[in-house]
Specification:
mainly alpha, 622 residues, 30 helices
Length: 622
């Protein structure tokens, strides 16, 4: 076996160890923070620097391979120091020794390099800017000034204790996130992902624009399990994008539809993405309360997107799929429906009050056990091993992003920047909620660029959510708002991870896919405004208020869909589109007069469109 093959084999062993260690601690209990988190990150470092593009690749110069080996050894060494000496470190309450000072510098450098290799430059540059801010504070004007900190103090914050690299973000990756990812990997290897897509295609394929609608339905179902937009695109997109292209969708449109559909899956209960479990930790709210609050916004997102792809299909007069192209839903459920029963197992343990990790453990056990009910779905030893490897490797981008986000959050805590940023948003908005929401959404989209949603949410919830809470927005509504922004950064140019992932499958320009995704998903950018202005959408109201809020939101969302697509019953004029967009904002308000005004406008445009259609039908053929 050559060096490249040996590195790949060791990488698989590390991935299996990481997954097995996580499953073990999920059942027997999590180890102390300064053991669980550094060991988790040490495995991730090994996976990054043992990748075939790094260590052992014969195409790389010897000096580069030596550098990879040094980064691997040093990165793992400074982390295992924490694992073996955590009691001594904890007893010193953050007092930094001379060797630890140098180890701290090494840990920051290796982490930033691992992050750059895994998810690119954006968060590395952001972390570097925050580190610089810790030193140059005394020279900055206005509210951004602070007394400044020494290199030793910054390294102590980043490397020792749980206020930096080993803070809450990495803790979430080492517990909640990896178990959800492992659960998703076992479901995927057992064939559950294909079952979900077959159900989606079978249910929607005969409708106009059926492949796109199947992408919407399938991605919403699979996205709640995978927890990341990129993973969702790379699973459901392999089926939906070629199907859409064969049905007449342009490649960039097919890629954009899949990117938008995959992004929203993280908002779909009951499992949702990993960010939902982080939100429960950040807001000190029960996970079930988070999931209940996300039901209507999640439905709203996909109903509107469903409307958009339907209008796109009608506008382009796309054909429906033939019967021969559709899977038999009954046969699919008969042959693979049992694979989905592990999801109710997961939900049951959560409802019973068990931790996310423990619920995930039994969901994995259920997924493996249920696979043996039919010979065709058996998780053979090879598939079990592949699932462990896939689970261990899938957490890499989340882990490095969370660890790097820990550095940023550590600087924010050290300098008090969070309070200053909140004050800035309140000051720039003049104390008015709508401008503050717009500024917060823009900040969430920018800060979330190039990051997995879980890491992006941790960052924006720390930096910008407090501004909304200070302005009187409900805590849960504020966090859901910034979560939306973090989530939608996956389709927002210039760094749109979901769009870039779809580009390879659609064989189209990624920037063009991203721009189209923003257009198709434009209604999604309005969704969070609805539940901030009308908290009944997240369950903060009686039944009558919730029903009315849901109805107004759906009408408003579909109005935005028509306005962006330029089509309803027939082509919509510029004036009609502008008026419908304005009606959506009227329907955003919880006041009855505003709702009545919005409904009247939508009804008037609908009546006018219907009259034009009837007039055209009655016109004699020329």
């Amino acid at each position: 076996m050559n060096a490249l093959g040996a590195a790949a084999a060791v990488r698989k062993l590390v991935a299996v160890f990481l997954a097995a260690f996580s499953i073990y601690t999920a059942f027997y209990g999590v180890m102390p923070d300064l053991v669980q988190r550094p060991l988790h990150l040490a495995c991730v470092f090994a996976l990054v620097f043992l990748s075939t593009s790094c260590l052992g690749a014969p195409s790389r110069p010897a000096a580069a391979r030596l550098m990879d080996a040094a980064l691997l050894a040093l990165g793992i060494g400074v982390l295992l120091y924490h694992v073996f000496l955590y009691e001594e470190i904890a007893a010193r309450w953050g007092e930094l020794t001379k060797p630890e000072f140098y180890m701290g510098i090494v840990s920051v450098v290796v982490l930033l390099e691992a992050t750059r290799r895994t998810i690119g430059w954006p968060i590395v540059i952001l972390a570097a800017l925050f580190l610089i801010y810790a030193f140059v504070g005394p020279y900055l004007p206005g509210i951004f000034t602070h007394r400044g900190y020494s290199l030793e103090r910054v390294i102590s914050q980043a490397y020792l204790g749980t206020g930096g690299i080993f803070g809450t973000p990495l803790g979430v990756s080492a517990t909640f996130v990896i178990m959800i990812v492992i659960f998703g990997a076992f479901l995927e290897r057992s064939g559950a992902g294909k079952v979900l897509m077959d159900i989606a295609v079978g249910a929607t394929g005969m409708a106009r624009g059926g492949p796109a609608k199947a992408a919407v339905v399938g991605s919403s179902l699979m996205g709640m399990i995978s927890g990341t937009a990129v993973a969702n695109v790379l699973t459901t997109g392999t089926i939906s994008i070629p199907l859409m292209k064969r049905s007449g969708y342009k490649p960039h449109v097919a890629g954009a539809i899949e990117a938008v559909a995959s992004t929203g899956g993280q908002l779909v209960p009951p499992v949702m993405g990993a960010a939902a479990f982080i939100m429960a930790d950040m807001t000190a709210k029960p996970y079930l309360e988070i999931a209940a609050a996300a039901i209507l916004p999640g439905m709203f997102y996909y109903v509107v997107l469903f409307g958009v792809v339907h209008l796109e299909a009608v506008k382009r007069d796309l054909p429906v799929l033939g019967v021969d192209d559709l899977p038999d839903i009954r046969a699919t459920l008969r042959e693979g429906g049992h694979l989905l029963l592990s999801i109710p197992v997961f939900v049951y343990f959560l409802i019973a009050g068990y931790s996310v990790m423990y619920a995930s453990f039994w969901a994995v056990v259920a997924a493996v056990s249920l696979s043996y009910l039919r010979r065709a779905t058996w998780l053979t030893p090879r598939k079990l091993l592949a699932a462990l490897v896939a689970g261990g490797e899938a957490v890499i981008p989340v882990a490095v992003a969370c660890a790097t986000a820990g550095i940023i959050i550590g600087v924010i805590a050290l300098t008090g920047l969070g309070l200053k940023f909140s004050s800035l948003i309140v000051a720039v908005s003049g104390g008015h909620l709508f401008p503050a929401l717009v500024l917060t959404l823009i900040a969430s989209l920018i800060l979330g660029m190039g990051l997995p949603t879980a890491a992006a949410y941790i960052l924006v919830s720390t930096l910008v959510a407090p501004a909304l809470v200070d302005m009187g927005v409900d805590l849960l509504a504020a966090h859901l708002f910034v979560f939306y922004g973090a989530m939608l950064s996956s389709i927002t140019p210039p760094v749109a991870l979901a769009a870039y992932s779809a580009a390879g499958l659609a064989n189209a320009n990624p920037l063009k896919i991203a721009m189209t995704a923003v257009t198709l998903g434009s209604a999604a950018f309005i969704v969070p405004f609805f539940f901030v202005y009308n908290p009944a959408l997240i369950g903060h109201g009686d039944i009558a208020e919730t029903i009315r809020a849901a109805a107004m939101s759906f009408i408003g969302g579909l109005s935005i869909a028509v306005a962006t697509q330029g089509w309803w019953m027939t082509r919509a004029s510029i004036l009609e589109r502008v008026v419908l967009g304005a009606a959506a904002f009227l329907l955003m308000s919880p006041h009855i007069l505003s709702d009545l005004g919005g409904i009247a406008v939508v009804a008037a445009i609908g009546g006018y469109q219907w009259s034009r259609v009837r007039q055209r039908r009655r016109a004699p053929a020329k």
